[in-house]
C-alpha cells in the first residue's frame, strides 16, 4: 500500500509514466494545481507548497527503491514542487504561467550553481530540492522580468 501511494505521488498521478519528456509533462500537470492555489491567501499557498515538497521527498525516496535507480525519470513530483516555487506571488495570467513554465524548465535543465549540488543530497531530498532551487532561480527571474517588463 505504501509503495502504491508513493508511486502515485512521485509520478504525480502517473504523469511521469509518459515515455517522452516526463519532466516537461510533470511541469505542465502542475499548472492546474498552481492555478487552484492562487485562490488561497499567500500563507496557505506557501504552507501547501511546503507540505507538497515534504510529501514529494518521502514519495521520491520510495520511488528510488521501486525503480531501483537514483532520480528515476518517472518521478515528476519534483517538477511540481519546482513550478509551485517558481510561481510564488506571480499573477496567474496566461503569459506569466507560460513564462514561468519556460523559466523553470530552463533552470531545471541547466542546473546553474549551486542547483546541481543539491542532487547529491540523499534519497528524495536530492530529487526534489534541486528542482526547488531551480524554482527559486526561476521565481526571482520571473519577478525581475515581470516587474520591469511585463507587469504594470
Could you characterize what this model shows?
With 152 residues, this protein is mainly α. The chain has seven helices and no strands. Helix 2 (22-37) packs across helix 5. The radius of gyration is 15 Å and the shape is globular.
Descriptive labels:
152 residues; mainly alpha; 7 helices; globular
Mean pLDDT: 95
Globular, elongated, flat, extended or rod-shaped: what is the shape? globular
Largest sheet: none
Number of domains: 1
Structural class: mainly alpha
Strand/helix succession:
HHHHHHH
Distance between the termini: 50 Å
What's the total helix number? 7
Helix content: over 70%
Q: Approximately what portion of the residues adopt beta-strand conformation?
A: under 5%
The total count of strands amounts to: 0
Radius of gyration: 15 Å
Low-confidence stretches: none
Spell out the blueprint of helices and strands:
Blueprint: H1 2-10, H2 22-37, H3 42-67, H4 77-86, H5 94-110, H6 115-118, H7 123-150
Task: Tell me briefly what this model is.
The chain is mainly α and 152 residues long. It has seven helices and no strands. It is globular and about 45 Å long.
